[in-house]
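Reviewers of the previous submission asked for a worked example of the structure-prediction workflow described in the proposal, so we include one complete record here. The input consisted solely of the amino acid sequence. No template or homolog information was supplied to the procedure at any stage.
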Amino acid sequence: MAFGIGLIGAGGNQKLRHIPGFREIDDVEVVNVVNRSRESSERVAAEWDIPRVSDSVEELLADPDVDAVSIGTWPYMHLDYTRAALEAGKHVLCEARMATNATEAEAMLAVSQQHPDLVSQLVPAPFDFRLGKTIKRLCEDGSLGSILEVHLTLLNGSGLDESGPLHWRHRSDYSGHNMMQLGIFNETIQRWLGDTARVTAHARTFVPSRVDEGTGERYSIVIPDSLGIFADMANGARCTYRVSAVTEGAPQPPSIDIYGSEGRLHWRFGDTGEWGRHGDDLQEIHPDPGTAHGWQVEADFINSVRNGAPVTLTNFADGVRYMRFTDAVWESWNTGQSREIEPLQRA
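From that input alone, the workflow returned the following structure tokens.
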């Protein structure tokens, strides 16, 4: 009998990535779906030939043919649905961002640890599947010397139009402390260079309200659209973040620059980059043999379930780490004070 996947939420990434990804794996079938309404669930089921539709998450979790769930809701429901799924004996693949705040993320980690026989995985930041392991190696093997500074530049004008629609990412009741694309890029930096120890943040919300197309009413926005962070990393490096959605005409694409005592590295969105030792010309970064891959999130998840492969992209402990960073940034911005980040001991 095929391994059954149940979908909780059926939004963009489920349809773009997860359903096609699961369908490519032998003896894996998407067997049930529950979305925000019966009508939307039935539309997704018809489009993707999913045999069953549930009217509630509880009904889907009671389906004996569902062996694992893919949670594709907004962050505010990730804790509740992860806990319910694990307690029902289902493996969990949960969309990022992990939760609305670090407290919820820590609760998700705790419940996953209570069910060590079940796989709990977060959808990983996908930006460095080609070069990530090579960049991590260059940062660790002395090629760049001691890492001194890291600079993230993530500037665009996507949020400048005040007449644009209200998105769930603008709503703290849905997204919590997650701000723009900060978390997903911090996850990438964390993957290469380890944890952040301390942050000092300043932020502004230049577009303070938008119209909710569902109600026609104006919604007040507290999530910033312009953010700057000075951070100290556990490895001793200093990291600067410039993140904005109101900088039309800013340099593109997003980039991460790493400066060491012996060399420097430039990575850009699209997973290309260059590196070189001081005094030498920069050279293109080529992935180390056997390290580059494309999107394989669903295959990795099933490999962990079937073969016990450890979850590396991305496990719940790493999710807690990036949510602690996100919380510290939120608290620093709102209090005007620097915030230390408690390290999470690695298993």
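The first strand starts at residue 3 and ends at 8. We consider this example representative of the routine output the project will generate in years two and three.
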